[in-house]
Amino acid sequence: MVQLPDRAGRVQTFTWECPHCEHAAVLRGGDVATTNIWERGRAAYMQFIWCPNPECKQFTLTVDFYDTIAAANSTPSRLGRLVRSTRMVPSSRARVWPDYVPAVIRDDYVEACEILEGSAKAAATLARRCLQGMIRDFWQVDGRRSLYHEIEAISDQVDATTLASIHAVRDVGNIGAHMERDVNLIVDVETGEAEALIALLEVLVQDWYVARQERQDRLSAVTEVAAAKRLDRAIQADDSA
User: 38: helix, coil or strand?
Assistant: First the structure.
């Protein structure tokens, strides 16, 4: 997290996670640049952050808009309510997943993140489709009548809390995927609700795909160590023969 500067341009830095490479870093003075504008009761802050990771070095741009509180006499105005915070670069909150996560799942996830602010209902619908793709691919579930039945097919494979959360994604995603019988009934999805669904997708990708790959990597490392030891013994036996 990075604290916004005051009117004098002073910036305090904290631990920060790069949205490009997802590495945590402690930012230094040269890693952060800010520009601020105070005009007609509003304040705008543009904040550039350059990732100190030598393998990344990409920048992030965030623009925050505030109301200001006028002060008496010549005392400078103070920041008031945060009106809007928008990250311009990268354009969405999407995490970068490894290639072993299927491309169609990564694509739906990224698109849901990109349209979150513009259409929470569409983002929820994409989150629902992304979830269904994950269940069909990871758990090899297919041929069921509906997403509900596909979720129930893995009910004995996941814990109760995860199962309830998965059904929540299905329920909220259904609002965007299916029209109500009464076309005049408007059921909307709030941005925060769609954001929670996307956060669950991130948890599931981590718990399912990433954890499985890390386990396979650890087991492969053990196998390679054993193979190397066998080779060493064989070489030593040949030398002593």
Answer: strand
| 172 Cβ contact list (under 8 Å, min separation 6) | 124, 127, 128, 189, 193, 194, 197
- Please write the tens of the pLDDT for every residue from 13-51: 567 888 888 888 888 778 888 888 888 878 888 889 999
First to last CA, the chain: 64
- On whether the CB atoms of residues 88 and 59 are closer than 8 A, the answer is no
pTM comes to 0.68
DSSP class of 178 = S
With H, G, I as helix, E, B as strand and everything else as coil, classify residue 194.
helix
Question: What pLDDT, in 10s, does the model give residues 75-93?
Answer: 567 778 888 878 888 877 8
Report angle CA 66, 196, 202 to the nearest 5 degrees: 115
Which domains, and CATH codes, for the chain? 1-89 (no CATH), 92-215 (1.20.120.330)
Q: 227 is written with which tokens?
A: 């193979």
| Paired tokens of 122 | 């569409």
Report whether the peptide linkage leading into residue 90 is cis, meaning its omega lies within 30 degrees of zero: yes
What phi and psi values does residue 30 have, to the nearest 5 degrees? -75, -10
Residue 47 forms beta bridges with which residues?
34, 62
Which tokens go with 39? 């005009």
